[in-house]
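pls read this protein:
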Amino acid sequence: MYNNRQDPKGGIRMFVVTRLKNLGYFLGIALMIFGAAFIVMPERIVGLITILVGAILLLYGFFRTLAVIFKWNTVKNRILLLVLSLALMGTGLYILLNTSATIHITGAVLGLFAILLAVDRFVSAHKMRGQVNIMPAVLFGIIHLVFGAGLIYASLQMFSFIVILYGVYLFVAGLMVVLSLRLFNDF
């Protein structure tokens, strides 16, 4: 940790580090709760995600369309912006009407996110090599990688299982954050 004799602002830094650690615990536990909800209520979660994503895209596209129309004479690339805004509206409407499309898109995006987290864990392990035990970071990287590949595969192959897989991943990711903060000190 920080030594107050070497750093005159050590007290402030310790306060910030403690607050960040507490935030990490909160986020890790929140991920575990969300993961449990995904596992217990997968159908409701799919419906909620579909409605939220579709409604946000539809409303955002609608407001962007209005903004382009009302500022037609002053907006550069107005045709392109209008087409993009209408495409957002159309995508939102399509998602609201087609649940399976949302599941495919979400599975691929979350799978890619998990793979990027795996890369982050592997890079952290490489940076810490020789300083601390890197096995927890490597293990968590492998777990992220397996879940990422599973999420991408599941988004292409099956619909109901993917939400449960999200839940297990969120729960395990939250547990990994809490364990990393508490036991391994690698965050």
